[in-house]
Design goal:
heterodimer, A: 424 residues, alpha/beta, 8 strands, disordered C terminus, B: 278 residues, two-stranded antiparallel sheet, 8 helices, 6% strand, disordered N terminus
């Protein structure tokens, strides 16, 4: 076997991986458009609503926490069954004062939890707060989100099903007209939720609990081993532990909540790199357990679970593929042979593969955001930035190593609301 | 009794379920909308795809001849000292397609080429650092371009002539790949566009515009590649192949596809709130 053959085999493997993800995109998109929608809990409007604690982890959130608490206080949910727990983790700004002010104005309904010690980070904060609350259902919102009045009820409804361990709602950007980036992120989010998450729900695969605009059942959480305070992505981490313990995770496409998306590229890169490190950590932890094919899981669920965990590892694979294709080109592989042509088309899948464009365009069309679809070709720029940012985060040692004794730290996305945007 | 109340026998009652305040229409929430996979929809998507595929396929010999005429006419205008020959591709016994190519050698890099291409590469690399952060994707793209070009420079610095891919074979290969994309267009649209709620006219219009655009684009792309390789040597050939070859054709497809998907259809409603600025 010549070196050229070895390179060619490597390239075929890369192409095979990309083709698998391409097929996945097509299946999800076609299912979302033409498949039977599975939204079994969306009609529940009347019931013996359980007690709910809404966690809002905060670290220096003075710009947005007030708006968040106002929105949650306006929630349409029985007041005697509902309280808000702003978890202030050592904020150095005015967050604590704002929270205490609300607690004084709404005694019993706003119950602050101030952390002054212990591991920093969202997962550790949630774990501490969980130990101090006895509600059977916890909802979690990041501080920059803006939930509507019906959202709490919608997110709690699935918990009437005793097999449901976690619920996830849909995230919709509200600052989408700030810059090209925010518009592109709106398209990406649309594809991710309107198509990807809903198709996984329809197909009974693994909808992902996303760490905000969602909730968990206390008993399920404790059964799965509580929040993992060493995790860089506590949301993905708890999703997989719940699934492996036999609990259902449910996605509610109708339960929408507004968020702020990054308005400039450096902020976006930091966000993606944080997600990459957390996701890869989960890949290392849970892919081997999934691949033992637990009895209670269907084969399709296992395959989807592994592919979902591997989604951030595709970027460096693609870069390796580009390297191999370049090497093969200079080693004299005939241009007319189908391999390079196939690879050029397949590589477009993450740099700009058509299946991904198909998914995003379909999602935006379902959303009724028709004119925005014209920005589709610009997504390739977003893919290029993601590709490099994700690859850099993946090859960094911290991406695969468990954090040390101190655990993860707060890695926050810049907030814009108070200063009226920072488009760059 | 039943004649007054039975919904099955009361035409016009069913639409009342969707009648909102002041006579407006109650629309399905965007979380619930979808399309039905009806036999008519499938038949139309399949027949349009197949007809398009067969039509484009059958037109390839004619297209090849037109491209040959175009190349013969245009080489002198752009200063390419090239003849035009035909590479015959036989598709079974059905068709013989003549793919025109330039009888012209891309020069091995000389001092002038090194200075020009090396200088341009260095300049692009510097520009990628000067651009402000809001152009980050452009910065990354430039660096990606520079990376491929640098590998190419390294390769030509270490090897001796002849280059692995002579210009005639390269131009024929690029045009062949482009014509393959043309043939695939109706099939990809069948899976991704014809299945939606666009009118028949919209489906035909997008297909026609895309095919005509690509059919005109392809020979121009090959011509520009040949001109650049002839004037800047084979130093630029790898970059042209990887970045400005098939990827560019796919991007053209995506741009048209995005435009077509933005057209109002017959079933899926547009959201007035999201129809402001794209």
């Amino acid at each position: 076997m010549t070196p050229r053959d070895v390179v060619a085999i490597g390239l075929w493997i890369v192409v095979a991986i990309l083709v698998i993800y391409t097929i996945r995109h097509y299946i999800f998109t076609l299912n979302r458009v033409f498949g039977r929608h599975r939204q079994p809990y969306v009609d529940i409007g009347v019931g013996a609503w359980p007690q709910v604690a809404v966690f809002v982890p905060c670290h220096n959130e003075e710009k947005v926490i007030g708006g968040m608490l106002e929105a949650l206080l306006a929630a349409d949910y029985p007041h005697d069954q509902y309280y808000i727990v702003p978890i202030n983790d050592r904020s150095a700004d005015g967050t604590a004062r704002i929270i205490d002010d609300y607690a004084a104005r709404y005694p019993g309904r706003v119950r602050p939890y101030h952390r002054t010690a212990g591991k920093p980070g969202k997962a550790a904060a949630l774990k501490d707060a969980t130990g101090h609350c006895d509600a059977p259902i916890f909802l979690v919102f990041d501080a920059d989100y803006l939930p509507g009045p019906n959202l709490v009820r919608q997110l709690v409804a699935p918990f009437f099903d005793p097999e449901v361990g976690a619920v996830m709602g849909r995230v919709v950007p509200h600052n989408l007209n700030r810059s090209l980036l925010t518009r592109l992120l709106d398209l990406e989010r649309s594809g991710g939720y309107q198509v990807d998450q809903q198709a996984r729900m329809n197909l009974r695969l693994i909808p992902q609990y996303g760490g905000t605009v969602g909730g968990v059942r206390r008993s399920a959480l404790l059964d799965a081993g509580d929040w993992n305070e060493d995790s860089l992505a506590e949301d993905t981490d708890i999703t997989y532990r719940l699934i492996l313990r036999g609990w259902d995770v449910v996605y509610q496409n109708r339960s929408e909540c507004y968020e702020e998306v990054p308005e400039n590229w450096p902020t976006r890169i930091r966000q993606v790199q944080r997600w990459t490190r957390g996701h890869n950590q989960c890949l290392k932890r849970y892919a081997p357990r999934l691949l033992r094919f637990p009895r209670h899981m269907r084969v399709a669920q296992v395959i989807d679970g592994v592919l979902l965990l591997g989604v951030f590892a595709v970027a460096p694979v693609l870069i390796v593929g580009w390297g191999l294709a370049t090497a093969l080109f200079f080693m004299g592989y005939p241009v007319s042979q189908s391999l390079l042509v196939l690879f050029a088309v397949a590589s477009y899948s993450t740099l700009g593969n058509f299946a991904a464009f198909f998914e995003v365009a379909t999602a935006a069309r379902l959303d009724g955001s028709r004119r925005r679809i014209r920005l589709l070709p610009f997504l390739s720029f977003g893919f290029l930035v993601n590709l490099l940012a994700v690859s850099r985060a993946t090859i960094s040692r911290t991406s695969w190593r468990d954090p040390g004794k101190s655990g993860p730290t707060w890695e926050k996305t810049e907030r814009y609301r108070a200063k009226g945007g920072n488009a760059a | 009794m039943s004649s007054g109340t039975g919904s099955a026998k009361a035409p016009g009652v069913s639409p009342l379920r969707f009648r909102g305040a002041q006579g407006g229409v109650i629309r399905k929430h965007r979380a619930m909308v979808g399309l039905r996979w009806t036999p008519g929809r499938v038949a139309r998507a399949v027949s349009l795809s197949l007809l398009g595929f067969i039509g484009v396929f059958a037109a390839l010999p004619l297209l090849g001849r037109l491209y040959a005429i175009f190349f013969e006419e245009v080489v002198w205008w752009v200063g390419l000292p090239a003849g035009v020959s035909l590479l015959e591709i036989h598709v079974g016994s059905l068709l013989t397609i003549g793919i025109p190519y330039f009888r012209l050698e891309g020069p091995w890099p000389g001092t002038g080429h090194w200075l020009m291409v090396g200088g341009a590469t260095a300049a692009l690399f510097l520009v990628s650092f000067v651009l402000p952060d809001r152009f980050l994707p452009a910065k990354y793209f430039l660096r990606f371009l520079v990376m491929i070009q640098t590998v190419s420079l390294g390769y030509f610095a270490l090897t001796t002539p002849p280059f692995l891919y002579p210009l005639p074979g390269y131009s024929a290969g690029l045009l062949t790949a482009g014509m393959a994309v043309l043939v695939l267009v109706p099939l990809v649209l069948g899976l991704s566009f014809y299945i939606f709620d666009h009118t028949f006219g919209q489906q035909l219009a997008l297909t026609a515009m895309l095919l005509v655009h690509l059919a005109v684009f392809l020979p121009l792309q090959v011509l520009i590649h040949a001109w650049l390789i002839h004037n800047l040597s084979a130093l630029v050939q790898p970059t042209l192949f990887f970045i400005f070859g098939l990827l560019l054709q796919v991007l053209v497809f995506v741009a048209f596809y995005g435009w077509g998907m933005s057209w109002q259809g017959t079933e899926l409603p547009a959201s007035p709130a999201s129809e402001r600025r794209p």
